[in-house]
Hints:
By secondary structure, this protein is mainly alpha-helical. Helix content is about 65%, strand content about 0%. It is built from 10 helices and no strands. The longest helix has 27 residues, at about 130-155. It is elongated. The relative contact order is 0.12.
Amino acid sequence: MSLSNPTTAPAKPRAGRPRSFDREQALDAAMRVFWRQGYEGASLTALTEAMDINRPSLYAAFGDKAGLFREAVARYGTGPGRYIRRALGQPRARQVAEMLLRGAVAIATDPTSPGGCLWVQGALVTSTEGEIIRTEMMALRNAGTTQIQDRLERARSEGDLPAATDVQALTLFLVSVMNGIAVQASSGQSREALNSVADVALKVWPV
């Protein structure tokens, strides 16, 4: 007679079965890993550990690392990076510029965040495998630049900027300062120092 009862023995879990998890919470964690380490620097091990999931769960929910990165970038835009949309809605061009600059400083120096900017950090891709991500990030940044330029073109047509303003150059100046703020914050510059940079940029704003 057998001492084991097959009808009461616990069922063995299926190998490799993805476990349940909070998708939104996991995506937030992945966003911060990419934000800190960039696309190439973020390993699958670092991502799954931060997200508290296994690889089968990651693949089932996001497809692959590239798919996860794309969703993390989109989440950044509607979360930490949403100050850009709010800035573009300001009534005066100088207010737009100030909110963009101050927002860049605030997000880059937030002690609860990885620092810098995901749209800048994530684009640091050098491998052939990551080329499509680099291209996508370039397109994303160019689209953002176009939105700012369109807003400043509207300001010029409304008389909010001098008629002789070179809007393209002014836009690139503003975006370059914002990107520089992100890079300098990653190098350890303080919020006070970077707000001083914003002050200088605003002093040369055309009136």
